């Protein structure tokens, strides 16, 4: 095998990074602020302070980003949060959007 052949057959293929998805909580008029803080701590590993900041963003701006993940992880988090909220009889909605 010549070096020219080696160069031609071993070119690099670059993989593009996975598309990031934001997991977002949406405001409603019924879910208590404490419950939202608990969700952020439980499912997104936020500290009390971090969770409070995001909860206030949800409350005052209508939505707040919980984290940025790959598609599969984001979808799992959305599903877990929505199921948890329903189990506790709150209408809290969690969605995901492409960044």
From TrEMBL:
The keyword Kinase does not apply. Residues 16-95 form the Adaptor protein ClpS core domain. InterPro entries: ClpS (IPR022935), ClpS_core (IPR003769), Ribosomal_bL12_C/ClpS-like (IPR014719). It holds the Pfam family ClpS. One of its GO terms (biological process) is proteolysis. GO terms for molecular function: peptidase activity. Keywords: Hydrolase, Protease. Transmembrane segments: none annotated. Gene3D superfamilies: 3.30.1390.10. Belongs to the ClpS family. Binds to the N-terminal domain of the chaperone ClpA. Involved in the modulation of the specificity of the ClpAP-mediated ATP-dependent protein degradation. This is ATP-dependent Clp protease adapter protein ClpS. It comes from Pelistega ratti.
């Amino acid at each position: 095998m010549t070096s020219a052949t080696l160069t031609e057959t071993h070119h690099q293929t670059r993989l593009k990074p996975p598309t990031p998805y934001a997991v977002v909580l949406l405001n409603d008029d019924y879910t208590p602020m404490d419950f939202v803080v608990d969700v952020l701590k439980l499912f997104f590993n936020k500290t009390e302070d971090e969770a409070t900041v995001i909860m206030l963003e949800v409350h005052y701006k209508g939505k707040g980003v919980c984290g940025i993940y790959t598609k599969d992880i984001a979808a799992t988090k959305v599903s877990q949060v929505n199921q948890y909220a329903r189990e506790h009889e709150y209408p809290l909605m969690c969605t995901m959007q492409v960044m």
